[in-house]
Design a protein that fits this description.
- The complex is a heterodimer of chains A (81) and B (401).
- Chain A is mainly beta and 81 residues long.
- Chain A is 0% helix and 77% strand.
- Chain A has a seven-stranded antiparallel β-sheet, with no helix packed on it.
- In chain A, β5 and β6 form a beta hairpin.
- Chain B has 401 residues and is of the alpha+beta class.
- The chains are: A mainly beta (81), B alpha+beta (401).
- Chains A and B meet through β4, β5 and β6 of A and α1, α4 and α12 of B.
Chain lengths: 81, 401
């Protein structure tokens, strides 16, 4: 079951040419670490290429959104096992 | 010159994209549905679901009856398009002649890029490896390699998932002994029935049938089928995407939305989508058509041929509305589709006997609306006629080609 949000979050990430690696993020007063990035895909909202990052911590799935124009991260979707 | 054509088919594409994004779903039977609800149908089933007998096109209700543990997800078209673009980018490194056939299938002409069948096999393995390492390790594809598009497609369908089949001219007609008629590209149950009536029940029967007889019985399609089957290259890989012959959109209207008040809004939404695509191809259309399916009676297909080409949303809407006029009761419409055909390239030719100014003004407005929506995305600006119907006609990916 997926839960849909649009919550602003704090993310620690490294950008390496075409690759993005999320090290940790904070959401709902909790810090999530040991993350595995599964998929990065770009979706154009007009001329803005929004970046979606799908990842999991072994027990939960997360879909994050990065807006390169504002450099803001958002929690978009989660589900548990 | 010996030709090397490759067909690549991403396995259970929508479902594996979801499993790639959410690793917790891997190894589980999952289905991707058009929308949430028991009456929706599966657009894709994962390999694990297929092993349990759940196929594309199965209703959610049936799928749950077959496997209670199946996870049903709503489709996410932007994700599939993005992954499809990434796959195309990988393929573009291997040849300059790539023909996308659908969101999850492409033909690649490797002629000149490889010298032997073994080279082609190595290239196919590399493509598979690059897709896994650069896009996602859960994504797999079946690849067929042969001398024509038809045989390459037959090859990729022979081994799924994660297959690699090479059909050389020497393999013909031996390879057909292992296949059913309906395994051939373009032969479904209708063709099988027709062929069965003249005693053709296997591919070998069809292969051995004289060309003149096939042509006289089935005309051009029969002639093409014979040539495909014998390995003649009659359909080369297109370098450029082929221009569309028609553009259409349809919407299966949920019962609660099906009211006489909503139908014009849905119609306008469909016309907006058709018009926007028509203008993006820099075409105008001479025919507007309307398809209807009802809850309790047979459907209808109506069309009108226009004396002048149209490309504006309002023009398409006006003609579609005229076709819809007289259809009663409107709240019995189950599926509404709008389309345009007889497309022709856009010219600046002025019309002598027409309301040119009116057409010109709507087209200019459409061009401005298109450029705003292309710049800021989605439906940044829209017609007042669709207000309150924003959720009608959501983004979807069509079946097949």
């Amino acid at each position: 079951m997926y839960h849909v949000f649009h919550d602003p979050i704090s993310v620690r990430a490294s950008f390496n040419s075409a690759r993005i690696k999320i090290t940790s993020f904070q959401w709902n007063k909790r810090t999530y670490t040991d993350l595995r990035t599964n998929l990065v895909h770009r979706v154009r909202m007009g001329r803005t290429p929004l970046l979606y990052v799908s990842l999991d911590d072994g027990a939960n799935y997360f879909k994050l959104l990065f807006d390169p124009e504002t450099c803001e991260w958002w929690m978009e979707e989660t589900s548990e096992v | 010159m010996k030709r090397y054509i490759m067909h690549i088919d991403m396995n259970s594409f929508f479902a594996t994209c979801e499993q790639q994004a959410n690793a917790l779903l891997r190894g589980m039977p999952i289905g991707v549905a058009a929308y949430a609800g028991m009456n929706s149908i599966l657009l894709a089933a994962s390999v694990e679901a297929k092993q349990k007998g759940i196929k594309t096109g199965t209703s959610v209700r049936e799928a749950i009856a077959i496997c209670q543990k199946i996870v049903i997800l709503e489709n996410d078209p932007p994700k599939y398009r993005a992954i499809s673009e990434q796959v195309s980018e990988v393929l573009s490194r291997y040849s300059d002649r790539i023909e996308p056939y659908s969101i999850d299938e492409s033909f690649i002409d490797l002629t000149g890029w490889v010298q032997t069948w073994d080279d082609a096999r190595k290239m196919a393995c590399q493509i598979k490896k690059h897709i896994k390492s650069e896009i996602g390790e859960w994504l797999s594809c079946s690849i067929g390699i042969s001398t024509t598009k038809f045989l390459a497609k037959v090859g990729s369908d022979m081994k799924k998932p994660d297959g690699l089949v090479i059909i050389t001219p020497d393999d013909l007609p031996k390879i057909y002994n292992t296949l059913e008629l309906t395994d051939l590209w373009g032969i479904a149950h209708g063709w099988r029935k027709k062929l069965s009536r003249i005693g053709i029940n296997t591919i070998r029967d069809l292969y051995d049938y004289p060309l003149q007889n096939v042509t006289s019985l089935f005309g051009k399609p029969g002639h093409a089928l014979y040539l495909h089957l014998h390995g003649f290259d009659v359909d080369p890989v297109a370098r450029q995407p082929r221009a569309p012959k028609s553009i259409s959109h349809q919407y299966a209207i949920p019962k609660k939305e099906c009211t006489a008040e909503n139908i014009p809004k849905i119609l306008m939404r469909l016309c907006e989508k058709v018009g926007m695509r028509l203008r993006s191809h820099e075409c105008a259309a001479r025919t507007v058509f309307l398809g209807l399916r009802f809850f309790e009676r047979p459907g209808a297909f109506l069309h009108t041929r226009l004396p002048y080409p149209v490309r504006g949303t309002r023009d398409i809407y006006q003609h579609a509305s005229l076709l819809l006029k007289g259809i009663e009761p409107m709240d019995h419409i189950r599926v509404l589709s709008i389309g345009v055909s007889d497309l022709e390239p856009l010219t600046n030719q002025l019309l002598l006997f027409n309301t040119t100014e009116a057409n010109k003004s709507t087209t200019t407005i459409d061009d401005i609306l298109d450029s705003i929506n292309n710049k800021y995305g989605g439906r940044t600006i829209t017609r007042a006629a669709t207000l309150g119907g924003e959720h009608f006609v959501p983004d979807r990916i069509a079946f097949g080609k």
